Amino acid sequence: MAKDEKLLNRYMILDELDQNQSVDQDEYKERLKEYQLRMLNLQRVLMDSKHNVIVVVEGPDAAGKGGAIKRLVEKLDPRGYRVYSIVKPTDEEYRHHYLWRFWNKLPSYGQIAIFDRSWYGRVLVERVEGFAMPNEWKRAYREINDFERWLTDDGTVIVKFYLHIDKDEQLKRFRVREADPLKHWKITEEDWRNRRKWDRHNEAAQDMFEQTSLPNAPWTVIAANYKWYARLKVLRTTLKALEALNLRS
Hints:
The protein is α/β, with parallel strands linked by helices. It has one domain (3-243): Rossmann fold. The protein is built from 10 helices and 5 strands. Strands 2-3-1-4-5 form a 5-stranded parallel β-sheet, with helices on both faces. The chain starts with 24 loop residues before the first helix and ends in a 6-residue tail after the last helix.
């Protein structure tokens, strides 16, 4: 079994993932078309059910989260999904429990919500940057597990991805963004600051897997140096989770 597909545990080291996971262009195009059609067909049945779907996508800067999400929803009925790009909390959100700002973004029955970063920021960037105190981010594991259990007990399917690239690949993608006027907006000083804390971010992610990868909402870690492979893996894993519902039209 590939290292990125093993059952997540405390011994998993992100920078030891096998990044030699690739797919050729012809296979990519064929599988992409197949998976997107299957997603669309399942979405149509989902819309008439008492289930909903939450897809969480985390990972380091430039890991390809946006590109994977784009291919996931590209052929879906836009009336049946929403994509949320989670950024710094507003002043009002700071005055509430950190999960408060996610409640009104949860999908209604029959709908899909995709989170480009999520409530896991509490145990990732907020932990690393010191925005959450140790007692706050440590108790967040239990709070998040309870939150997700409430949802899955009510019929929500939660699919959680962590797209990981190695440090050299991240630098290459940063340089491409800096050199391209159409992509320059994607690179900020915050990205460089996060890169300087690479090991601390990895440690936080590895602790997160250990504490929050549970049977009702497991993590799937994807070696994402090769974008085509990562995009297909996201689609295939989401399809598998939806097909497990045995929805009937």
